[in-house]
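Forwarding the complex inputs:
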Amino acid sequence: MGTMSLLFSITTVIYLIASILYLVAMVTKRQQTSSMGRWALLAGIVIHAACFGVRHSTAGGTPVTSLHESLAFFAWCLVLLFLLLDLRFRLSAMGAFAAPLAFLLMVASALSPDVVVQLNPVLRSWLFPVHITFAFLGNAAFALSFGAGVMYLIQNRMLKSKRFTGIYQLLPSLDVLDKVNYTCLSVGFPLMTLGIISGAFWANTAWGTYWHWDPKETWALLTWFLYAALLHGRLTIGWRGRKAAIFSIIAFMFLLFTFLGVNLLLGGYHTFEAFAFL
Amino acid sequence: MNIVIVGLSHKTAPVEIREIVAFPTTAMEAPLQQMLELPSVIEAVIVSTCNRVELYAISRQPVAAVIEMKQFMADFHNLEMETLQDHLYDFEGKDAIQHVLRVAASLDSMMVGEPQILGQIKTAYGYACEYKTVGLILNRFLNKAFSVAKRVRTETAIASNAVSVSFAAVELARKIFDSLENKTVMLIGAGEMCELAAKHFVNNGVSKVLVTNRTFSRAEKLAEEFDGVAVSFDNFREQLHRVDIVLSSTGAPDYVLDAKKLKQVCKERRYKPMFLIDIAVPRDIDPAANKLDSIYLYDVDDLQGVVQANVKERQKEAAKAELIIADEVNQFQTWLAALEVKPTIVALRQQLEKVRCAEVQKTLSSLNGLSDKERKAIESMTCALVNKILHQPTYVLKQANNNGDGSLYIDAVRTLFDLPDPVDQKSDKLNDCSDI
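Prediction (whole assembly, two chains):
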């Protein structure tokens, strides 16, 4: 427990440092500072991964059964995908969105009760980690597409209104932001799809039915349809730019509700307590 | 040792004067040599651009040097001193150091932050090296100026915003398309500004140029210039869907492109963004088109607005740059003063040593019957005395130099102890430019 919480704290602090570096880089416009932020994030996910490793051996299974663990795992997925995206597009400006978000997720995680929950034997299956990983990576990709969407709208507004504030220089071009939005969507959508399918199979092995229509499943399906519509719009009708950005922001709101709102408000199989009692 | 500057710039002299006093860069040897021959000048550099003519010198008598250099400038260009006098400025010491650092960092330029001046000073320095008119101090100083200019450029955003309309257009395009590679530009009409902007676009990677004009032959001519394609004015609208950037400057009294047509074009382009620049007055493109999602329409006033905002931004950055300069001025001054501290300390020591030897000699010759041991004791006592006396002044001199008022103490020490003037450096000029 000691090592685990130490690693957890170190990770949180590193994400905080990375956030500060990225924000400072935004103000001072210095490339060096943002690349320091990048290295900090890289160090952060490595230590964070070690933290999961320790937790895995303590819990004797995939350590994503409580809200505490889910939020932390989400942060990890987010940073991982951001770093991959950054590798491709050099998105220092987005670091100022992703790093603080990861930090806040860690803080939220720290604030929710840290219990190592033994998974109910009924639910023990190799499909559990698969389901969790796909679903969370998908969520992280959509969070980034949300970030890119917001940045697009800000940049677009400045270019349209012809009034430029300091942030104009820092934001990437519309073209890059739109590409990022699309990339995240095209990565996130298959991940989410696989997450849902693996979840269904897992449900079948545990309870004998693929689909329960519990609130989380229903909302996930609704969100899935939204993203499917967006992807379809982009690929066939030529939706892009502002329209796609707005759509991805709205869809992310639904995703957020699916991820958190359902657990906190509606209950069902996916509530974390349910794992404990089942 | 002082840095002395005499010169004039766009701020003090009209172009009529500037063009007369400019030194042709093709023949720099004569003026540089002549300047070096001035009695008070030890090192010489001449910077001559269309906005600025400045003489940089190292001298021991700054007041005399200023008069000589002004006279030289008038004589060389066969001007009456009266005509020139009012336009000339002069600096020495700290002010001179600051002036050159500011000029090199483009803080004194007509358009603050434009980098050309740095290259021009480098060229001037190159000539001075070639004709061996620079020595230790100007070498060190100008290299310092170059590195400070670089520091200003990397640590402030002084040069990061476009301050001309056509560059502003290119920058806006970059914020929309990211890269201009594989983008297509269409020129509608053939205004001069349009052509200039098109050149900037081509220089920045635009690969394809379409040109249309009411007079087809003019379109063809312009297209040839850009290695592009001429399109007849009657059906250029049919080509618009292939175009990413439009530059329009026709003399048409009405809109050449209306919003309705552009809406259709957007659809044909599958809503890929389109950047329209309307330089014409009266305008060529219906301003309502800017409301379309994938259209970014800028007219002349919009671009001017961007430029003005950028100029303001540069001025803000210039304030940051001034802080850097102030810091560097102090550093260089300390270095310059240190050049003289060491010789002064050596001279002071020699002076006292001379006195000591003479007095010991006198005393020993009047005393008889001293043993060798006793003689040695007197010798070492006097040595210790000199060392003790020198300790504090030496310490203070070094300290004062670090605090930036070395020259004050150096002068005081030289006067108090009647030290000889340092060797005139004119005789042993250092002529190497390798001190980077």
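The interface with chain B takes residues 29, 155, 159-160, 162, 164, 168-169, 172-176, 238-243 of chain A (CB under 8 Å).
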